[in-house]
Amino acid sequence: MNNASATDALSLLLFTLRSGKQMAINLLKVSEIIPTPSLTRLPESHPHVRGVATLRGQPLSVIDLSMAIGMAPLQDPKGGCLIVTEISRSKQGLHVQAVVKIVHIQSSKILPPPYGARNSSFITGTAEVDGALIQILDVEKVIHNISPIPAEADISDLDDQDAQLLTETRALIVDDSQVAIHMSVSALTKMGVTCHAVRSAREAFEKLDSLKDSYEAINVVVSDIEMPEMDGYSFTQALRKHPDYASIYVLLHTSLDSTISTDKAKAAGANDILTKFSPPEMAKCMLRAARVIHLGEDASVA
Fold first, then answer.
1. Which long-range contacts (CB under 8 A, 24 or more apart) does 63-69 make?
2. What is this structure's pTM?
3. Any idea which architecture 9-146 has in CATH?
């Protein structure tokens, strides 16, 4: 693979569940950590939702993370603490046994989960910490299993030219979350875009190489930012340095607030950035990409 190696470090928050085994969550996806508050149980709520807390006057759904990933619930439902996350346009509390510490690891040292476990587990990657293998939580999958997000965009108001532009667009989705891949592919296929999907930057370069001289050659890459091995910023920089892909359109797709990452995305060479997951906004971004690719409109990130 002809690309630059990733140099950015990823910060992980280590935590434990009932078994005491440590797991990790990307620190960028954590807004705060609080003691377990009093909860109000709502009738007919999902069985993995323990209840609703009030955080600074706002409701906060609290997920029993142990149950959500198929493990036994915590022994003391009032103990432990909440890891509050704000991702994919929603805020929730993940109930865990304890928070251990924060570690910083090179993105290149974080490996994808075992191949056979990719589609069934709640893990996006693994990392070695103090001689032990730590699994990194796929928060998007946990949330999606509890509250699925509609994946289709309404394209009924597209004119014939825009619809044609989209059918001539061939996208490569790069994301370590199987749920995010499924939602992106579903939305883009509905728009008429031809899609391929991979789970890492390494696989992305392999797919780009395999298609580059064919009628299916990719002309837009939709990449996650928070990925193992190489993050979306480093991946974009590698594309910009590659002789065959320097001019390819890149949309960075993040579960974090995209306004925080816009400057960094622009510096890396991305054309656009979008917070997961909004089918209407995805449709707008892809139409913007199609107009740049096929009509030569301005390609600078907003």
1. 63/92, 63/93, 63/94, 63/95, 63/142, 63/143, 63/146, 64/95, 65/17, 65/94, 65/95, 65/96, 65/137, 65/142, 66/17, 66/18, 66/95, 68/122, 68/142, 68/145, 68/146, 69/122, 69/137, 69/142
2. 0.77
3. Beta Barrel (2.40)
